[in-house]
Structures are given as C-alpha cells and as structure tokens.
Design goal:
- By secondary structure, the protein is mainly α.
- It has a domain at 1-163: Serine Threonine Protein Phosphatase 5, Tetratricopeptide repeat.
- Helices cover 72% and strands 0% of the residues.
- It has 18 helices and no strands.
- Helix 3 packs across helix 4 (63-76), helix 9 (165-173) runs antiparallel to helix 10 (178-191) and helix 12 runs parallel beside helix 14 (253-264).
- The termini are far apart.
Length: 335
C-alpha cells in the first residue's frame, strides 16, 4: 500500500490524501492475520481499530495488531489516535525489533503525523521515517507494501531529507513480480510528471490479479487522472476513470473522477447520475462527492437536491477547508 501522496503536493498539504490512501487496505497480503484482513476487506476500519487495540493491550508485541492499529489511526486522521498508534509501534519494536509490520507502522504513522505538524517537524522526523521504512523493507523484502512505502518516501522527500528518484526507480525495477514492477514504475513516472507513461504502465496491469497491486493501481491511476483534470485536459482523464470504474466497480474512485470529467464538459445530468451511483461505495467517505454533486445539481437548477448534498458534505466535516467554506456559502445562498 502506498503511504504518501501525489508528487504535485510534495510534503506539504498531503495529510488528507494520506488518510484516504490508508482508509481501506484492500490487499490480500497486507495482513497475515485472517481476522484483521476480513475487517479491512469489509471496510470496517473502526472495528479493525477496536480489535487491534484490544490485542495490543494484552500483548505489546502483537505485530499484526500494531499494524491494524496504524491503519485505523491513519484512517481517522486524528492526531491523538496517531500518537497512540506511534506509542504501540515503538513498544512493539522494543519488544520485537525484527517485526517488519511494526517498523512499517512506525514509519507510515510518523510520516503522516510529522507532515501534519509542519515543515520543521517534517524535516526533523524524516530520518526516522526513512529508517523505519527501510528496516521494514530489509526485514521483509517480498512484502509488497513495505517496498511500495519506501518507493513513496524516496519520491516524496526532498533530496536533503533522503529523497531519491533514482533509488525509487531501482526499487521499482527490482520488484519480484512483473505487475509489481509495472505499478511501481508507474508511480515513478507519475512523480516525474510523465503522465502518459504512468497511465500506460498502470492501466495495463491486468484486473483480478494481486489485490495489493490493484489497490495501488487504483490510487495512482486516479492521481494521474486528477492531474490531467488540473491541467484542464478532461479528455485524457476520462479513459483513466472509465477503466477504474469498470475494473473496480466496488470503489468510488473511478466514478468520482468520471463525474468530474462530465461536469467539466458541461454534462451535469450524466455527472449527477454517476455521482449518485458511487457515493455510497468504498472510499467514498474520503472523496468530496457530495460537494461536487451539489454543484452539478445547482447547474441543473435543482435546488432541493443541491441543498441535501451540501448539507451531507458539511455535516461530515471531512474535506478541504476551501471546499467546506464554499459549500456553506452555496447552501446559504440556496436558502
């Protein structure tokens, strides 16, 4: 599972994206513990956190439970929850330093937590983040999430803090399976701004294979599509999102992106249809679907459903501050 955000944002402004990326780990190989994996597969992240907390309370070096606690903490996007997960990760490493899961948990949670506290803290903690992620990879080089996390660190961190696109490319190239190589090389191409190559690499990964790779493909291909939208090229973004919607119909990423494309092209009725179709799917809680849905309803002159959509978005309270402020203003104008 990738733990860091798109290259366009670099270290600043990445925390919300990180929470979304870790909110629902769909990969079959993420947890070795079947009970925790079932909770993750079912998108039952709150239950995952509760089960993990009960287990680490009984046994501090329960590495799988510490990993579950880290995932739940990142999904919550709450500083206090991250701090508790960090404490358990550190205790696990002290008791069992050879546990790759605990090293991964420390590196991933500390990376997000440091970013949330500003550039000075990010710089101060970068070395520890890198050390933990590198140790997780050293201890378990065949565990794809550990390799992917280290690739993300090298791509995201500035060179003075240990970042290196060359090291990321080397890790991608030496992954043990072809689909892993394609996914990670696609991520490197995305970081380099080679969007066409990134899309080609990511979208040619066969559907229905390694679900760890499929999860990263969904996240990273979605970022390719969003970057094309930022460049005002919805025609290039559309096939990316259509592919995601077709290959991963249980996830909201593809439909949300396609709705954005349709809205930008003035097809608001079709955008509404797609948004309504996907707003209850997996991953939807991390996307501003109701905000965009409200805008499309407004464009169609349908005030009542626009009010309802904005109201849901504001009530949830998760999203970019500018979008939340805009939603409040729009709702007030609608009466």
């Amino acid at each position: 599972m990738g733990i860091f955000c798109a290259p366009a944002g670099r270290w600043a402004g990445c925390v919300g994206v990180l929470a979304g990326l870790l909110a629902a780990p769909a990969q079959a190989q993420f947890f070795r513990d079947a009970a925790l994996q079932r909770l993750a597969d079912g998108d039952r992240i709150a239950e995952l956190g509760q089960a993990a907390l009960a287990r680490v309370a009984a046994r501090a070096d329960d590495a799988q439970a510490v990993l579950g606690l880290a995932v739940a903490a990142l999904a919550s996007n709450e500083a206090a929850t991250r701090e508790k997960a960090l404490q358990h990760a550190q205790a696990c490493i002290k008791a069992q330093p050879q546990a790759a899961e605990c090293q991964y948990a420390l590196g991933s949670v500390l990376g997000v937590h440091a970013m949330s506290q500003g550039m000075v803290t990010m710089a101060a903690q970068a070395g520890q983040v890198k050390e933990a992620l590198a140790e997780a990879f050293r201890l378990s080089p065949q565990w794809y999430p550990a390799r992917g996390a280290l690739v993300e660190f090298y791509l995201l961190a500035p060179g003075m803090l240990g970042g290196s696109n060359a090291r990321a490319a080397e890790l991608a190239r030496t992954a043990p399976r072809p689909e892993q190589v394609r996914a990670l090389e696609g991520r490197v191409a995305l970081a380099d701004g080679r969007l066409e190559q990134a899309a080609s690499l990511l979208l040619e990964i066969p559907a229905g294979g390694d679900s760890a790779v499929a999860d990263d493909m969904r996240q990273w291909a979605g970022l390719v599509g969003y970057q094309w939208l930022q460049k005002d090229q919805p025609a290039k973004a559309r096939p990316v999102f259509e592919r995601l919607l077709r290959d991963q119909p249980d996830w909201a990423t593809g439909g949300y992106g396609l709705g954005r494309v349709l809205a930008l092209q003035g097809q608001h009725a079709e955008a509404v249809r797609v948004y309504e179709q996907v707003r209850m799917l997996r991953g939807a809680a991390q996307l501003p679907i109701d905000y965009r849905l409200g805008q499309s309803y407004e464009s169609l002159g349908q005030a009542e459903p626009a009010r309802a959509a904005y109201g849901r978005y504001i009530k949830r309270g998760v999203g970019q501050p500018k979008q939340l402020d805009d939603a409040r203003k729009r709702l007030a104008l609608l009466g």
